[in-house]
Amino acid sequence: MSAEQFEIPGTEQEKIPAIESAADKYVEKRNLWQGLGREVIDAKATLMDAVHLHKAGIDGNGDDVLAYHRGDYHIVVKRKEDVKVKIDGTDAPSLDDDEGGEE
Question: Which residue did the predictor score with more confidence, 88 or 96?
Fold first, then answer.
């Protein structure tokens, strides 16, 4: 409420504990998720750096597409910016897969 407005006694919003409890849980999870965003960005950068550091020993066509496939690990780095990771899955990205990348 702004400084000019005030509530008239008896007209204030009735407290609804279920709404306030759900809002508190939402804010807690939202703040946790936002905090993890930085960790995810850092982990992605570390992975991309590792792929580029070892590019001589993995498949690809230079810096445009680098691909590491071993067992359940399928990691494709495109254009030094985008990384796709699949672990324990059968939907491994292929070197020809161009979804989500920019030309």
Answer: 88
Pinpoint the alpha helices (H) of the chain: 17-53
Distances (CA, A) of 47 to 6, 32, 81: 54, 23, 11
In 3D space, the residue among 66, 78, 73, 70 whose CA is nearest the CA of residue 89 turns out to be 73
Please tell me whether the overall predicted TM-score, pTM, comes out greater than 0.85 for this model.
Answer: no
85 SS3 class: strand
Distance, CA of 56 to CA of 58 (rounded, Å): 6
- Two structure tokens written together for 13: 């919003």
Taking a C-beta distance cutoff of 8 angstroms, is the pair 70, 58 a contact? no
Q: Using one digit for the tens of pLDDT, what is the confidence trace for 11-52? A: 878 888 898 898 899 888 888 888 888 888 899 889 888 888
What are the residues facing 83 on neighbouring strands? Answer: 77
